[in-house]
Every structure is written in C-alpha cells, then in structure tokens.
C-alpha cells in the first residue's frame, strides 16, 4: 500500500490522457448525461448564431446604407440584436447547467472520498499528513468544478466556434480565408513551453499549500497550540509559516505573470491577421473584386477564429491541470483498503458473551519487524483479563488487533470460536466497547457526545449510564447540565471527568466485550476511586480486556497477562504471578514498594 506524503507526479509526462483515464473521468459525468447533451446543443446553437451579426454588418454596409434603405437597416439591426439576445439567454441557461453538472460531480466525489477515507486502515491516518487529506478533500475536489466549465465546455465551444467560423470565412472568400488563417500556426509554438512552466509552478504551488495546511493543522490545534506555547516556539513556528506562505505567494505571482506574458505574445499574433486582411482585402476592393462590407465582416469573423485557437492552445495547460487533479484524487481512491469484509463474512451473534482467543499471533506494523510474536491466550467469557507490561511492550497493539484495526501476519484471533476475519467488521465492532487512555470527545454537548454511542437512547437510559459511571452528579451541577459544550476534544473537562463520560458512553452502547486502556495520567484519589467504581459496573458480566498501568486497578482480574517486548512473559492469576520471581513480581514490588517509600517519606 502506498501511504504517506503523496507526491504530485514529478514529470509532466507522467500524466497522459489515456483511454482508461478518460473512461474513468467520464463515468462521473454519466449520471448527468442529459444535462451534458443539452449543454452541447446550446453550444451548437450559440456558435452558429454568433456568425450572424457579422453577416448582418456586411448587409448594413453594402446594401442598407448605400441604398439609404431605412426599413432594411432597421430590420438588420433588430435581427442582429435579437440574435445577440437569444445567444445571451442561451448562455445564461448554459451557465446554470454548467454549475449544476460540476457541482453535482464535486458533491458525488466528496461523498465518495469521505466514504473511502472512512474505510482506510488506521495505518493510513498514522502515516499521512493531516493537511494532505484536507487538501485532497477540499481544494483538489473543489478544483474539479472548474474542470467542466473551464475544460470540457471550453473545448467543445471552441471547436464549434472555430469550425463554424472557418466554414463561414471559406464560403465568403476562400483566398481571404487562407490569408486570415496564416497567423494560426504561430499560436501553437509558444504553447508547449508555456505549459511546462505553468505546470511546474502549479505543482509547486499545490505542494506549498499542503505544507501551509499542515502547519496550520499542527500548530493551531488545541494540543499543538499548548505544545507551541510551552516550548515558546511561537517565533520559530511563525517564521516557518511565513517562509512557506512567502514561497506560495511567490509561486502564485510567477504563475500569473507567466500567463500574462503568454497572453501578450498571443495578442501580438492576433493582430497580424486583420492587418493582412485589410492589406489584401483593400487591394481586392481597389480592384473592384470585393465590397467594404465584406472586408469588415471578414475582420469581425476573424476575431471569432483567433479567440478559440488561442484558447484551445492554452487549454492544453488546463487539461493537464485537470488531469493532475483527477490523478491526485484517484490516487487516494486506488489505495488498498486492506481491511475488508471477507466475501463470506457473517455477522457475529448480537449481545452474546463469548471468549476471545489468541493463537500464535504475530504482527508487525512494518514488514520484517514484528511488534508482537507468538501471542497465545484466552480471555474467558464474562471475566476480566488484564494486560500489564512496560510501556511500548505491545499491550495497545493486542487490543487494536481484536478490533481489527490492523490484520495479523500469522496465527488467529477468534471470538466464540469464529475467526474475527470471518466476521463482518460492522458486527464485530458493534460488539466491542472501547475506553481509551486518551478520551476522545468531539466539540459538542455532553448529551451529543453520549448519544454518539446510541442515538435512540432515551433520556433516562442516558442518565442511568451517567449515574453508573459516577458522572451524573457532576454533569447536573454544570450551568448547562447535559447541554454543556465540552470544547475541542473535550478540553473543558478534566481527564477523570472525560474518562467517566467515555465509560458512560460505552455503557449506553452496552456491548458484551469491553476493552479498556486505563488512563496513565495520575488521577487524584477521589477521581481514581470513582473511575474504579464506574469500571466495576461497566465490566460486570462482560468479557473484558483491561490494560492496567496501576496494578491496583486489576484486583478483580481473573487472569493477568504480562507482556514483555512483544511476547507473553508470564500469565496466571495474581497469587500465581506473585509466587514467581518474574516480571510481574518486579512490577508489583516497584509499584507498591514505591508507594510505601513515599508513605514512609511523608510520615518520616
Ligand atoms: N501505528 C504504529 N506504527 C508503527 N509502530 C507502532 C505503531 N503503534 C505502536 N507502534 C510501536 O509498537 C510498539 C508497541 O506499542 P503499543 O502502543 O502496543 O505499546 P503499549 O504496551 O500499549 O505501550 P503504552 O503502555 O505506553 O501504551 C511500540 O514500540 C510502538 O512504538
């Protein structure tokens, strides 16, 4: 799987307009084919109507004016105005259709991307930079809305205007038409060079913007802000941001300046054609072969010829840019989901207490460097199994494997005898309640955070869960009670309060399996007491796995597993482990011995 910093393809040549890509992109247009067809019909109409005013001008100059025919003049002027008005109205309708099609495609893509990212493995989010995900979700996908208008419609419109004008010019006078078209090849030459420059600049701008998003994400989030303040890194971070910002501004100025030069060169070429027409057309007029009206009509029409050629040549750049956007989005869509439902996956029985069995489980985050090796144990149904061990020994990893946040390399994990890989992910996770070390609450009210577990839970049930988690009294004493907003990640609450709310949330979900990672932050005695009581209630009659940092937490554990460096060092009940001269005894003596030392010290 490719994760991490996704690179904007380094070489322009990497993005090729191949058939597969076109088919893939056109699939997004498929649901809106009727609207797209309508746009094409409107384009045909407006491009044909656009020729008429020039022809009317010719008749005004050559007939209505010399013959002093006021009626004919009025008729021509009215016809010309009507044509312009009808074109204008069709244009308005087309703009609406353009917006409708492009916004709907953006809507579909954003939904698809969100759904896809929801299914990405945890490993993806631990590796990829947050700014990158946001850039792809927002600016890249939003950039697609310009693609339909700026690329697809523009392409067809220009082709239609170009061909209808060329036909009209040739029908009027083929010699003059050939002369007028003389300047056309001159447009093509600078385009290639220009496209390379703008491509490179666009790529660099995109990267800088991602970097900018990243800095904002990291330093202006709650935890990032605290980190920055505590280490007094404001100036350093500001300097870093300023540098990236300056670079992004410089690139954007260069990008638009490069465009200006291009337009200037094109404008120069555009003025060559009319001059040639005046020269040769004037000669033909003097010879009596052509009328003044024809020359004027010709020059007016010529403008319609150069505009599209100019746009079509620079459209090449836009097509490349659009393709790059699609490529960047497709890059995410093409990432392997890794953890998927097995084709014959079954739903786990709802609410039945079962045991969890690890058999020779080996797992590595990075290939060839196992984090867990040969883990085998049974967490008995309806009992508490405790995981203890030094920091980094692999306890959280074991619990993550039960939730199938990662898939194991070898061995098996079963629940009630069924391999978890044969269970649907949705049903598996619905049967597990997780209380993590760091409680994640979103910025909403306490009630909303609790309801995340069960939207249909009646109020009494919610209150009962909070009472059982020893947090109800605290909540009702807040000025807004259950409607109190908890702040980003629940910052307005203490660690102990947050963890009790998270226990209440799991109680509302009421699953038969509970995984609990005890908070490491030292809680005061009262908090610890209430959390312990809340835990006792939560774990009652559940198959539970508790990661304990304080051995006092797991007095009720029927089975203790000591993890050391990714392996099970020893296991058994408390008495058994204390009877051995092993890791547990050492941990026990260190924790309780330390407590005694501290007490002696205080007493002394
Ligand atoms: N997403 C990850 N990618 C790569 N390595 C990881 C990842 N998560 C954890 N690790 C590594 O795996 C090892 C086990 O980590 P784990 O979080 O399971 O330890 P732990 O026993 O729960 O630690 P603690 O008690 O401090 O929470 C550690 O060396 C850690 O650096």
Automatic annotation (TrEMBL):
The chain crosses the membrane at residues 37-60, 72-93, 166-189, 261-280, 286-306. It comes from the Bacteria. The keyword ATP-binding applies. InterPro entries: AAA+_ATPase, ABC1_TM_dom, ABC1_TM_sf, ABC_transporter-like_ATP-bd, ABC_transporter-like_CS, P-loop_NTPase, Type_1_exporter. The keyword Nucleotide-binding applies. Residues 356-590 form the ABC transporter domain. Residues 37-321 form the ABC transmembrane type-1 domain. Pfam families: ABC_membrane (PF00664), ABC_tran (PF00005). It is found in: Cell membrane. It is a multi-pass membrane protein. Signal peptide: none annotated. One of its GO terms (molecular function) is ATP binding. Keywords: ATP-binding, Membrane, Nucleotide-binding, Transmembrane, Transmembrane helix. This is ABC transporter ATP-binding protein. It comes from Paenibacillus pseudetheri. The lineage of its organism: Bacteria, Bacillati, Bacillota, Bacilli, Bacillales.
